[in-house]
Amino acid sequence: MNNMFKGAGVALITPFNADLTVDEQGLRKLVRLQIEGGTDFLVVQGTTGENPVLSPEEKAHVLDIVADENNGELPIVFGVGGNNTMAIVNQLKNMNHDAIDGILSVSPYYNKPTQEGIYQHFKAIAEATELPIILYNVPGRTSSNMSVETTLRLAREFDNVVAIKEACGDLDQIMQLIQGAPEGFDVISGDDNLTFPMIVSGAQGVISVSCNAFPEVFSTMVKAALSDDNETARENHYKLFNITNMMFAEGNPAGVKVCLKERGICETHLRLPLVNVSAALEAKLIEETQAILKS
């Protein structure tokens, strides 16, 4: 099974109304912005979508809205992960797969399993579904790093393990993965500001946060990098470099929601324990957003 999730993927935020219910119109506008802005695939209910604070019913509702607005235009990846292997397996066996083309599954967090535990976790998931699986390594959130050996073991043994969203931040580890990847298995960036150098090194795309607010610029950068047009890629990489750092300065997706509000997509409401960015950072994000949109 070859990986179909290449290019500029976006980790969609979940817009909320003032009463913290899901903002359907904001979500529809966001999906439309991605389609029109050149995004290649949509990721629903990843960490950026605030999935830890949505109920199973709300997650299904968000997926339904995205699928309806998308209307088959872009592939959809759905976040199905956690640190309870049995619960994930049961979810995969019982969920409706009609609206999704693949799943994104984060390496188990908090439990801090061994590499063998991580392997057995994903082995159970791979055997529970025929859907393509994108592994997700993000040590800064999980407190454990998925090793190159574990990732490549899964890639070689399971045909439906098609990619890894790699957010370890270690270019040496990333290049080892790219060098050792079997045919049909891709490395995808999980760090917006490392996407350009990762693609130059052989990665095949990204699942991005800043693409929510600036799909036109970000997708141009990714497409140029994948086409070896490094001059165009570099220009667009640096166009978003500073604002991407700002977006993460006080937590994600608090920063990117400020940019989206400036674009008229949705408000900045978040569910606790996340809170809005400071007034000082908000002002900087608005100023930089306006500059990018005028450029």
UniProtKB/TrEMBL annotation:
Active site (UniProt): 136, 165
Gene Ontology biological-process entries: diaminopimelate biosynthetic process; lysine biosynthetic process via diaminopimelate
Annotated site (Part of a proton relay during catalysis): 47, 110
Location(s), subcellular: Cytoplasm
Domain of life: Bacteria
EC number: 4.3.3.7
Gene Ontology MF: a single term: 4-hydroxy-tetrahydrodipicolinate synthase activity
Reactions mediated catalytically: L-aspartate 4-semialdehyde + pyruvate = (2S,4S)-4-hydroxy-2,3,4,5-tetrahydrodipicolinate + H2O + H(+)
Chief localization: cytoplasm
Cited InterPro entries: Aldolase_TIM (IPR013785), DapA (IPR005263), DapA-like (IPR002220), Schiff_base-form_aldolases_AS (IPR020625)
SUPFAM superfamilies: Aldolase
Swiss-Prot/TrEMBL keywords: Amino-acid biosynthesis, Cytoplasm, Diaminopimelate biosynthesis, Lyase, Lysine biosynthesis, Schiff base
GO cellular component terms attached to this protein's record: cytosol
Pathway: Amino-acid biosynthesis; L-lysine biosynthesis via DAP pathway; (S)-tetrahydrodipicolinate from L-aspartate: step 3/4
Binding site for pyruvate: 48, 207
Similarity comment: family membership: Belongs to the DapA family.
Subunit structure, as described in the record: Homotetramer; dimer of dimers.
Its job: Catalyzes the condensation of (S)-aspartate-beta-semialdehyde [(S)-ASA] and pyruvate to 4-hydroxy-tetrahydrodipicolinate (HTPA).
Protein name (record): 4-hydroxy-tetrahydrodipicolinate synthase
